[in-house]
Amino acid sequence: MRSIYEQALGAEYKQLHPQLQKKFGLTSEAKTASICKGVMEEIWGGRAYMYPFLQLGTLKHITFPERGRNIPFTLENYAYQNSFGQECVAWIRKFHFDKVRHFDATMYYCSKRKGIVDCLGIDQDLITDIDISVLHNGGIRLLSGPLVYYKKGVEIPVPKFISGTAEAQEWFDEKKKKFHINVEVKNKYFGTIFGYKGTFTIDYFVRNGDIPEYVKPRRESDRK
User: What is the DSSP track for 54-119?
Assistant: First the structure.
């Protein structure tokens, strides 16, 4: 069974660094999961007038208002099949400020759209397509497309005025034996909503039984 990311990249998947192939190779069939632990060297962005929006986003696990340096970070990835039979990978990101903040998502491969679909937060009603490519250093780049609000089969484009696009780059440092990550979420009119960069290591494991309850969204998207 191929992971959703290998399906999206096709033959280019083999151009990823072996450590990236392993990280993005989780499948429900193998019951594989991973936990990343590291430190965000810096978390930045978000002007003062954005604070209410960023605070509101904490309720859906899509934004947070805190900023800082050297913030402990964990990321849990679980490959599983949802109730619609879609092969999914959960991204449970935790930023350990004085209060733990989340930036969570669930991704799946859509054969109709021939790419990765990203369902943001824990309600899966904010959705975007992901353009995925391989970097020259064997790393990976994920770039979000237009954001839509989706519920009960109705799809509404989110106005650019209140929407954002995200770019994430990950690569592996052979000398330090660590992964590097750089993420920035921007709004066309107001600039950076938030960004972060740092390093981490990964532990892999085979899960027993179902995925943990806290990994599951409050609502699953049936968008095709």
Answer: HHHHGGGTS-----EEEEEEEEEEEEEE-TT--EEEEEEEEEESSSEEE--EEEEEETTTTEEEEE
Question: pLDDT (tens digit, 9 = 90+) per residue, 50-105?
Answer: 999 999 999 999 999 999 999 999 999 999 999 999 999 999 999 999 999 999 99
The first and second tokens of residue 116, run together, are: 């990765």
CA 51 to chain centre: 22
Instruction: Say if residues 19 and 104 touch (Cβ distance below 8 Å).
Output: no
Question: Counting Cβ atoms within 10 Å, is residue 205 exposed (0-12), middle (13-18) or buried (19+)?
Answer: exposed
Q: Beta partners for 186?
A: 165, 192
SS3 8: helix
Q: What is the pLDDT of residue 208?
A: 87
| Residue 133 to residue 5: CA distance in whole angstroms | 10
This prediction has a pTM of 0.95
Per-residue confidence (pLDDT) for residue 223, from 0 to 100:
79
AA letter at 155: E
Helices (H) and strands (E) in the chain, counts: 3, 12
103-139: pLDDT as tens digits: 999 999 988 888 999 999 999 999 999 999 999 999 9
Average pLDDT over the chain reads 95
CB-CB contact of 65 with 90 (8 Å): no
The reported pLDDT for the residue numbered 152 is: 83
Residue 104: closest CA among 84, 80, 76, 144: 76
